[in-house]
Amino acid sequence: AETSTETEEDTGTDAGVEVEAGEDVIKVGVLHSLSGTMAMSETSVRDAELLAIEEINAAGGVLGKQLVPVIEDGASEPPVFSERAAKLLQQDEVAVIFGGWTSASRKAMLPVVEQNNGLLFYPVQYEGMEASPNIFYAGAAPNQQIVPAVDWLLENKGTDFFLLGSDYVFPRLANQIIKAQLEENGATLVDEQYTPLGHTDYNTIISRIRESKPTVIFNTLNGDSNVAFFKQLADAGITTDDLTVMSVSVAEEEIRGIGADVLEGHLASWNYYQTTDTPANAEFVANYKEAYGDDRVTGDPIEAGYFMVHLWAKAVEAAGTTDVDAVREAAVGIEFDAPGGPVKVDGDNQHVYKTVRIGEIQADGQFNEVWNSGEAVKPDPYLEGYDWASGISAE
Amino acid sequence: MQTISARLLERKWLFVALIIILLILPFFISDFRTNLLGRYIAFAILVIGLDLLWGYTGVLSLGHGIFFGLGAYIMAMHLSMESMTGAVPDFMTWNGITELPWFWAIFSNPISAIIGAIMVPMIIASILSFFIFRNRIRDVYFTILTQALVLVTTTLIVSQQSFTGGTNGITGFSTIFGYSLSSPATQKGLYYISVGSLIVVFLICSILVNSRFGKTLIAIRDGENRLRFSGYDTSMFKVLIFSLSAGIAGLAGMLFVMQVGIISPTMIGIIPSIEMILWVAIGGRGTLIGPVIGAILTNSAKTFFSESYPDFWLYFLGLVFVIIVIFLPGGLMSLVDKVKRRGGKHEKRKEPTDRKETSHSAVG
Amino acid sequence: MKNVKNLQIEKKPVILQSDKLSVRFGGFYAIKEFDFSIPHGELHFLIGPNGAGKTTFLDAVCGKTKYSEGTLMFNGTTNLAKLKEYEIVREGIGRKFQAPSIFPFLTVFDNLELAMKQDKRVIPVLFSRMKASDKAKIDEMLSLIGLKEQKNVVAKTLSHGQKQWLEIGMVMMQEPNLLMLDEPIAGMTEEEEEKTGELLLELKKRCSIIVVEHDMDFVRKFAEKVTVMHGGQLLCDGTMEEIQRNERVMEVYLGKKGEQANAKAL
Amino acid sequence: MLKLSKLEVAYDGSTVIRDVSLTVEPGKVVCLMGRNGVGKSTIMKTIMGVLQPVNGTVSYSDEEVTKKNASYRARKGIGYVPQGREIFPQLTIYENLLLGLEARSNSEEKINEKIYEYFPVLKEMKDRRGGDLSGGQQQQLAIARALVAEPSCLLLDEPTEGIQPNIVSDIQEVIKDIKRSQVNTSILLVEQSFDFAKSVADYFYVMDKGRIVYEGEDLMEEKVSQYLSV
Amino acid sequence: MDGMIIQAFNGVSLGSILLLIALGLAITFGLMKVINMAHGELIMIGAYTTYVVQVIFAQYLPATMFDMYYFLAIPIAFVVAALIGMLIEFTVIRHLYGRPLDSLLATFGVGLILQQTARSIFGAPNVGVQSPGFLRGGLEVMGVTLPYIRLFIIGLVIVSFLLLAWFLYKTRNGRKIRAVMQNREMAQCLGVSSRKVDLITFAIGSGFAGIAGAALTLIGPIGPTIGTYYIVDAFMVVVVGGVGMLIGTVAGALGIGIFNTVFEYWTNASMGKVLVFALIILFLQWRPSGMFSLQSRSLD
Ligand SMILES: Nc1ncnc2c1ncn2[C@@H]1O[C@H](COP(=O)(O)OP(=O)(O)OP(=O)(O)O)[C@@H](O)[C@H]1O
Ligand SMILES: Nc1ncnc2c1ncn2[C@@H]1O[C@H](COP(=O)(O)OP(=O)(O)OP(=O)(O)O)[C@@H](O)[C@H]1O
Ligand SMILES: NC(N)=O
Ligand SMILES: [Mg+2]
Ligand SMILES: [Mg+2]
Q1: Looking at residue B327, what is its pLDDT?
Q2: pTM value?
Q3: Which chains touch E (3 or more CB pairs under 8 A)?
Q4: How far is the centre of ligand 4, averaged over its atoms, from the C-alpha of C94 (Å)?
Q5: Is C242:C62 a contact under the CB 8 Å cutoff?
Q6: pLDDT digit string (tens) for E84-127?
Q7: Using 50, 70 and 90 to split pLDDT, how confident is the model at C245?
Q8: Can you tell me where the transmembrane regions are (chain C) (predicted)?
């Protein structure tokens, strides 16, 4: 027996959107960590998703209906993500969930969306090795971020790699890929180090860096540790003259928390930067700043959060219904002119074609793009297109 | 003269009332809510053990997340073996492990998983606590140490991800002992199993605390050294009660994972471990029933606030903790006692919570 | 038999024997080469100035303080150095502390129940039940220590003196062979002292007793044998009459009370 | 000097002191006697301000202090030697004594030599921590700590408990000495020893079950046996 | 040889940071017996204060003066954290003296509130603080570079420690503080206003947390949850050193810092942490109440 009052309460208080009960709205779930350690990254993504929802509503909604976001807090805890996903699907009966950041949160939601035949759009680059029929992956697969970055580094920066990551799934798996790739290319792995999540003392790591003298550090540290690492690296007097750090989890938002002064000259690999020069982006950045303040910055996961809402909306329009199976089918091949360049949903694995971009950090905290893939790269979460990776994806 | 309402506030009647409510509630709320309630019941089981340890024996553990986690992980390992398609779970494949490690294999049998989920925490707790208590590490030293233990354990779990699933935890189960996890009937069944476990654990612990053994626990809390000079080897009592509470935590973890479908390190870390203690405090330590109510109410409130006010719920939660601890040191149960006293019964009762927790007892 | 200097040995076997016992805190010797022995069934008073080491000696016997040198033998054969506190209690040594120490949140009855002689290992306690004979024993003790009315009162609400009584009761419930009381009558009225003294004489039939006390009237009245400690060492021992005549004892401990009183009376 | 009127004190709702009125005249030594648990210490604590009475008033040098806290009363000149000593265990003897000076208005940190004359052991062990002292040494320290502030009213709760006989007589001397040399200092003494009480006190109160049952300048044997026997 | 110097320096450097984060706790927890779970959030307050001071300098003062912000930030961080500490004492802690474990729970709640407040004011993402220019670079000693920032923190912690030790053990107010913490009631009976002393003591402890926060901006992240990174370490330092002993806190911090560095170097960061904790447990087996134990014979 469903209690209707409860449902109304849930939606009514969320995000300040007044709901007129009835058939002419579509409820969508927005599930990110608003508290706990992941809040610092995820709140901005939520903001971008809400922005997209507003835009769609302003343009007349989806199928003529307004979208009503139901916002939930995943509290940086995977079981909470799983609980709230179940709540959104069972209780609020949302048409789709936009949410998650860490792989742990995605893995927690995965069985829930599968069992309830729901839809999840996930906005963050991740380690691959997954393709659930109920999830659309708007972030980069490894071949859209890591692999091209390593190729570029080998060509431009040197062959002595130091792999540094936080001790969890994404860095471990990313580094396996990198190691295979290095071996394939005859490059050298000088050291591989992991630090616990939230680690803040990098003295010892820096000593190791000094000893092993890499030309490249491939950095898969998680948010907060990046701050400590880069500050301490700079204090130790190690500059871009000595080596280059390539990061895959440092975007504009993180740069502000680290301080551009210590990052200048280091690199990152993403599919989007605030400085990416497309007409869609100029508008997106302007709208985002207008909505949330001039001092805010955009970044890759923010952009992914933004465009994936639009992708879903287009898929619903194409399907003519919010029914999950119909939307899933209709989504294949859907394209959208995202701020980071055109994106397209892949039919094989429900990931997204994206342009790969390598950027150098500037003194103002923005990126200067030094390379891009030209066209959108096909996602390959299992790295099936790379022989050298066969040992990793082997079942 | 004792009025009916006063009688209802007796602890045992309170418990009976609670159980009746828990038994019939699923007929009135959605499956989703029932499932949530089932999780809270798992927590309620856990806090009974914590209350034995803290409320009665005065040993504050901020490390029960570990034992909860052990039970949960063992059951999760079993469920994930039940559901896996290949020879090993996915995450092992990525880490280049092709054969099930022995400590996984032994839990592939459901019976051994259930026994393991309870016994492994007990055994580990008894070994650990034997060394800690034997050397008279106590009070805040013990408490801080347990907190550090949590940190180490989660760090270990995360860093040994090829065996443990790392930060992702273990998830993705489809069946449980052959029943489909997504079926509402299975979920209801698990709910009632949880209620049943709550009853059994509660009764056993009630009998325990009302026996001479229970008095010994209180004596340890209030004057451990004095008790030693009365001929008791208090450290062994503490080892026993610590292990028992760890076993209960393991059981709770097992029930939790069956209903939630995931266990990951964040669930057993420092903050969840502290929250468990808060449930005890909010309900009223040293009363058994209080913590049970505290766990269910606090978690319901937490869910309610965080669903309704995702941006503000931490303020609520923080304030509730502060206010309860300051103004209601005996927890919700002291409120019940107050009402009861007004209800006509002027019995003088002990309130263990207003005692001063001086670190030096008279003979220390 | 052991080669012991003590003369009492001829009459009764020794229950506690200390041999060149020393207890040290840092560089400070609270007890230094202290020889002491007490035979079965004796009521023995241990006196001496504040800081002489009396409490420390009791601490050493009951295992609270580790001693650095010397030996402590119980019943002639048991070396107390090797035992933990609770094992020492199980051997039959009971101790009342100088400041009353009881379980404040248990009732008076429960306090006595826990102290009662019984199997105190974990598992037996887990399955033990209250027997009618236990109850009777506790009730008897309650009337003996005058706390019958407070039977179900939480112990922390007792007054200082009542706590003292309760603790004496608790130690007696252990049915020890050697009872050690540290200033048992402190804070008691004279009548109460009297009663305590009679209690001691009664208990003496069951066990040996060491009493530390500063109240000389009390000592005079009840002591069989008195040992005087000073600076952690044995000053002298003997009957109260002998002690009272000892110059050193008068100087460091008793004071020249009589003369002073006379002087002031002028 | 000190005046209690119609005092009623309770612990957690259970009354232990009922309708107690008591006066201590300046320069007098007043002795409060009674069996264990009749409420002597409770009265002392209420005078000091550690406990708040339910009813009644406490006045001190013509000022009503019922609502004032303990530190106010201490600074007004009430000194307190509690039963159970209450030494600061981690502070040295010397520091314990210096703390006694806090109640005084002038901030000079100097211990009157006389204190050391009364209790020589405190000088010997000046730097030992209070908690390491023997019971009797602590009791001496507690008395000394109260004396250093030169209080005008001294509350002594069983000051001789646990003290060796010759020092007991010294304390007796100290009290007499105070009576002689500080004629305005009054003392309220709780004491079990009949002889001791008789030798120093000018006035007696005897309590039973939370009430004053006898008062007078002399303590008659029959009264004693009536109220003080078990 | 170089390796040795670097290792030793890294150990001392980590130890100095641990000491800095634990110094305030040595007061609020060590002396006052308040298990202050909001200590990490007080550190956070110090860090955000530094950030605000920096922003103000950047906006309103000429660029040449920018580097001076840091000198002002440290005392301001102390004062702001101390004031908030006072507020916490006044509203929460004062109800909880003598109930250490309750204080743990209540301050945990306070921590949540402070975290959420910071999130509301400064946003969830980290904010950046630029280290002052004169702390850039390092000192060359025998072929190794010792970063000025690390040297500065070591200096800061030495000064903080000496000030605190002098205040607590050599001044009259320090004596009052210690007396009140040991026996509140009796101190009051001697004319010490324990309310005032409690308030001030907690404020001082909080203020030192603020200083730690200011220092941490030089080397770590500044966000609403940074307190959680440091809180367990801070408690471990105090406990290993011995609760209530300031000197113990120093020993605990250096010990943990050095062993952590060595173990991390031998193995890796995760295992290093595990090994340090294993060592701590072993150590407490041997000394159950820390390196410098306060355990005196209790009153009997
Ligand atoms: N832990 C300790 N550290 C330093 N000195 C100590 C310690 N324990 C006891 N002492 C010292 O040892 C001496 C003996 O103390 P003890 O308590 O045995 O005396 P006592 O004979 O019981 O005195 P009293 O009659 O006053 O109770 C005292 O001088 C005391 O200060
Ligand atoms: N903290 C407390 N809580 C409740 N009741 C108490 C408390 N302290 C004392 N009482 C009760 O108050 C009564 C008076 O106690 P008080 O300590 O004043 O007695 P007393 O006359 O000083 O006795 P004694 O000679 O033994 O020291 C006692 O009956 C005791 O049970
Ligand atoms: N998916 C990530 N970056 O954890
Ligand atoms: Mg003694
Ligand atoms: Mg008294």
Answers
A1: 87
A2: 0.89
A3: A, B, C, D
A4: 16
A5: no
A6: 999 999 999 999 987 888 888 899 999 999 999 999 999 888 99
A7: confident
A8: none
**For residues D160-199, b (16+ Cβ closer than 10 Å) or e, as one string?**
bbbbbbbbbbbbbebbeebbeeeeebbbbbbbbbbebbee
Domain extent, residue E170, equals 2-127+134-299
Ligand nearest the Cα of residue A304 is: 3
**Mutation test residue for ligand 2: of D42, D52, D80, the one with most atoms within 8 Å of CB:** D42
Regions of chain E with pLDDT less than 70: 1-2, 294-300
- Within 8 A of B270 by CB-CB distance, chain E residues are 228, 232
Residue B231 falls inside a structural domain: yes
Q: What is the CATH classification number for the domain harbouring C194?
A: 3.40.50.300
Query: Hey, which of D8, D33, D36, D38 would you mutate to test ligand 2's pocket, going by the most ligand atoms within 8 Å of its Cβ?
Result: D38
Q: Which domain holds residue B58?
A: 4-350
Q: In 10 A of CB A323, how many CB atoms?
A: 15
Nearest-5° angle of CA B340, CA B346, CA B351?
70
Per the prediction, chain B carries an average pLDDT of 87
Work out the angle at residue E214's Cα, subtended by the Cα atoms of residues E210 and E220, and round it to the nearest 5 degrees: 120
Q: Model confidence over D16-39: pLDDT tens digits?
A: 999 999 999 999 999 999 888 889
Measure in Å the smallest separation between the Cα of D61 and chain C Cα atoms.
30
In percent, the amount of chain A with pLDDT more than 70 equals 93
- Per-residue pLDDT for C265 more than 50? no
Inside any domain, residue B355: no
Backbone angles phi, psi at E236, to 5 degrees: -60, -40
Q: Which of residues 110-139 of B touch C (CB under 8 A)?
A: none
Phi/psi at A278 (nearest 5 deg)?
-130, 155
Distance CA A324, CA A28 (A): 13
Residue A54, helix vs strand vs coil: helix
Q: What is the pLDDT of residue E79?
A: 98
pLDDT digits (tens, 9 = 90+) for A273-315: 999 999 999 999 999 999 999 999 999 999 999 999 999 999 9
User: Does residue B94 belong to any structural domain of this protein?
Assistant: yes
Helix (H) or strand (E) holding B112: helix B110-134
pLDDT digits (tens, 9 = 90+) for D179-223: 888 888 999 999 888 888 888 999 999 998 889 988 988 877 666
Round to whole Å and give the CA distance between A378 and A140: 10
| Nearest CB neighbour to C125, from listed B212, B350, B355 | B212
User: What is the domain extent for residue D202?
Assistant: 2-85+154-228
Q: Rounded CA gap, E111 and E116, in Å?
A: 9
Model pLDDT, residue E294: 64
Q: Which residues, chain by chain, have CB under 5 Å from ion ligand 5? A: C 160; D 41, 83
The answer to whether residue C5 is domain-embedded is no
- Total domains in chain C come to 1
Q: How far is CA B89 from each of CA A106, A113, D121, rounded to the nearest angstrom?
A: 17, 20, 75
For the CA atoms of B13, B14, B17, B19, what is the dihedral angle to 10 degrees? -110
Q: Write the CB contacts of A191 (distance below 8 Å, at least 6 apart in sequence).
A: A162, A163, A208, A209, A212, A214
- 10 Å CB burial of residue A271 (0-12, 13-18, 19+) is buried
Please state the domain count of chain B. Answer: 1
